[in-house]
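Students often ask why we bother encoding 3D structure as a string. The short answer is that it lets us treat folding as translation between two languages. Here is a chain of 111 residues written in the first language.
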Amino acid sequence: MKYKKIILAVVLFILLGISYYIVANSKYELSEKYRDFPVPISAQLTKENENNSVYEWSMSSDENGIPISYRLIIWVNGWEKVVREGTLTIYEKDEVQIHLSSDRDEIIIGR
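And here it is in the second language, the structure alphabet:
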């Protein structure tokens, strides 16, 4: 009886994790410009040049950075956090670096 409860708890935990990932993954798309780096679907592109793109995104914060769901999707897509200084985080994958800066209601993605 005790083992059934433990197995049930583990199965529920796994199902909740999978559900969270599916919901989080549906909120991001991979950017061709930035070598398949995830970009929030709800973010609105406000400025763009050759090296970076500025997005208006209400989930971003200068104090708290980006949401954990965004960090999870970045990690799942193979990007590794290399450096974090203030609001700037540098991610790397296959020797390509992407700079992600989070500010109040805005993110900047660049090379």
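Translate back mentally: Residues 87 and 101 are 5 Å apart (CA to CA). Keep this in mind for the problem set.
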